[in-house]
Amino acid sequence: MATNSPRLTKMEELAKVAGVSVSTVSRALAGNPSINAKTRARIVDLAAKHNYQINENARNFRLQKTNVIAVVLMLDVKSEQHTSDMFFLEMLGAIADALSVQNYDLLLANSPMTNVLDIQSSRIFRQSDGIIFIGQGNQHEQLNEFSGLEKPMVVWGSNLPDRRYCTVGADNVVGGYLATKHLLNLGRKDIVFMGDINMPEPKQRFEGYLNALKEKGIKFNKRLQIDVPFEMSHASEAINDLLQQKISFDGAVCCSDLIALSAIAALTESGLRVPEDVAVVGYDDIALASYSSPSLTTVRQNIVQGGRILVQKLMAQINGDTVADSVLKTELIVRRSSGAW
Amino acid sequence: MATNSPRLTKMEELAKVAGVSVSTVSRALAGNPSINAKTRARIVDLAAKHNYQINENARNFRLQKTNVIAVVLMLDVKSEQHTSDMFFLEMLGAIADALSVQNYDLLLANSPMTNVLDIQSSRIFRQSDGIIFIGQGNQHEQLNEFSGLEKPMVVWGSNLPDRRYCTVGADNVVGGYLATKHLLNLGRKDIVFMGDINMPEPKQRFEGYLNALKEKGIKFNKRLQIDVPFEMSHASEAINDLLQQKISFDGAVCCSDLIALSAIAALTESGLRVPEDVAVVGYDDIALASYSSPSLTTVRQNIVQGGRILVQKLMAQINGDTVADSVLKTELIVRRSSGAW
DNA sequence: GGTAAAAATACAAACGATTGCATTTTGCTG
DNA sequence: CAGCAAAATGCAATCGTTTGTATTTTTACC
Predict the structure, then answer these.
(1) CATH of the domain at A88
(2) d(CA A48, CA A50)
(3) Contact A123/B105, CB-based, under 8 Å?
(4) In this model, does residue B339 exceed pLDDT 60?
(5) CB neighbourhood size of B3 (10 A)
(6) In this structure, what CATH number is given to the domain that contains residue A34?
């Protein structure tokens, strides 16, 4: 099929070869119905044969669009969230896949921003048709302001009150509830909640945690909630603190698998058995969760579906539609079927 | 500083405001020395004041460049390398940072390709000024062919023989050597090598492994090398296989931290103690390595430096220079200072 | 076969920047 | 102050598409 004809770089050349005008070629390649079917077929064939590839730069220029979507990873610098990284990459992959179906490319925001609004003067902003924010960090207000900027955007995160932007996210309240309920059903009573409730998502999970406690008629003990960042080293410290303070607990709901793994490590180091003495539930279901020992019961967010929906909502906005938020189903993955866990 | 003047979108408008011609504005903004310093300053000020931002599309079109670098993650589909993901994301971040300094954006290749050469007809190819490949997968030949395509490119990986493309990579031979040497120094004799030696990097690490053995005068036992992919589940199977076959061993050099962690899990499940019965060394030093329990001795590749050098070499090529390969120093991170480990 | 309507194609003007070259302005020197 | 070189600026063509409108070709009908 492929020949070695000198590569055609301009429509003009292809037009000459085909014996038609440039505009006909343009329309033929774009599938414009006003071009005779036979002519179109002939031109498309010739294009393939001569390995013609449209000059995307010229096209974008003319059409004033980019066919690029920017993705901004809202790494929370303060809390050194390098660790939920795995989640970010999985999400990134899911989004990239969903975008490629729509013939869009993915532009990665170069570095974690301290203020989202800075983006509006960056190339990320000008060189993209829309922006996907992964996470909200603690920039809810800035995102709200950003949404006034006439730039299609969508945010992976929780549906905070007063938001003016479209969010797609897992149901964090249900997630927190499921995790806690699971431990309660195993007979645990004193359950630690490990997660920074100043951050949107942990906050909602905490709400679910409280709901589950209330349902069982258990009173919440303030000292069992610990503002631990996603970053894991702090989690072991926190556990050690608890132990030192002789605060007793027999279960832990963690806001990431890495926190959970770190907690488990700290517990075992202190001579406690997991899950016999303290049962632990994670969040995210990163690959490692299933392979670690003991393997981890965890709450799974459907990342692939999330990526797909993010893209879909963004495309809708680009096409001028208004879109509603979307809350994805969340499920509990129970890893140790043995009773104790 | 910022005013609410109606945003100027074309140079023409800015030119009118400044009372000069479009070409003068263009040159002033580009820092062309033929423009009077005072005029330039005035124009730059006006641009800021009126919030003028150049139309990057038009600029790229005119200059026939993109200011975008594409990054292709060579995820090895066959071996389901989802797990060294963490490495990929860290590298991605490092590259993005290095690129942003040079005012380049990062375009992420949408999905793992089965054949690298397919890229040449994709937008990734046309819409970028250069390409960075992360890893070689098993597409050494295709990459070689690709290098004939007049597109600046650079590859993170090992310096395979007969390569025609520029590589930047850690010293895998030394890495394998260091890991093995470490175990030998601890008195271990029967050391398993876990890694698929059909892949370039594991292959070189295996070479280092053999060197270390030879140095100690230990004969290599063929049955101790296991072609385990980076993906972790296979690692525990492999360990279980060894145990079932009653092949005895007291150490393991693993080609990724995840393989290592998986191996450790399998070992402990079988009632063996780590590191007392079997000492394990990983590779990559992912964040988890330091927090897992027991914490993991591992070989670290300097990813940030790697990203920076990749970008630097690519820029050099874009500027028409020819560049040489680069091999980064590799170091062993010993985590358990206690003698046994 | 002549005519008008419909279908297919061609023409030419954008899109917003850059840049070689022409032109004007400035600065110097005798 | 004339004269000229150097410095500063302006003019206009150009990059490769798309698309509104003009033009040509085809079709259908009497």
Answers:
(1) 3.40.50.2300
(2) 5
(3) yes
(4) no
(5) 9
(6) 1.10.260.40
